[in-house]
Amino acid sequence: FASLSGQPAAALLLQASARYDDPDDYDSETSIHVGADYQLGGGFSLAVNWGEAFKLPSFFALGHGLVGNPDLQPEESDNWTVGLVWSPTTSLSVVLDYFDIEINGQIWDEELQPLLDDELALRQAGETGATVGRVTRQDSGRIERLLTMPQNLDTTNTDGIDAEARYAFGIGPAGDVALKLVWTHVLHYKRDYKDG
Questions:
Q1: What is the distance between the alpha carbons of residues 79 and 145, in angstroms, rounded to a whole number?
Q2: How far is CA 71 from the centre of its chain?
Q3: DSSP secondary structure string, 128-150?
Q4: What is the rounded distance in angstroms from the CA atom of residue 56 to the CA atom of residue 124?
Q5: Which of 15, 20, 73, 151 is most buried when burial is the number of CB atoms within 10 A of its CB?
Q6: Is the pTM of this model over 0.90?
Q7: Tell me: the pLDDT tens digits for 149-163?
């Protein structure tokens, strides 16, 4: 991991970092992050960030005896944000961010409908019993258990707005109190499975 920052002008701060991962069972990956913060005056600043991320599957997702999937691949993502910060005093700050995230190969539980479709096809082909495929039913026909496995999606795309207000104040010898209000609104969210 390496990072650097510089201030080419009094109002401008630039930052960059790089991280190199070389896991045993997967290809190596370099993740980069760059950002800039510009002081607009009057307590306002504008921040722009772009970054990549790399996340290995968990041991549970890979190796659980019932629901693990040893074929899982790491997740990779690109994200960027642009935000306006207002800090009129050291006690008060308000942040408004727009974010855009794309995740490739996100690890997610598979959809349930294909499992039910497979069960139906197997039963129509003559299979019987409480458990057919990965679906277990009670005598009444109600579903008792669906055995799902995590899988890598093609892509997940989302964007939206984050807002945060923070106010801090002292209460004498008892110390300090910080109040924070956070709000998120997702504008778009789309998840694509490999099978369409």
A1: 37
A2: 21
A3: -SSEETTEEE-TTS-EEEE---E
A4: 40
A5: 151
A6: no
A7: 888 888 999 999 999
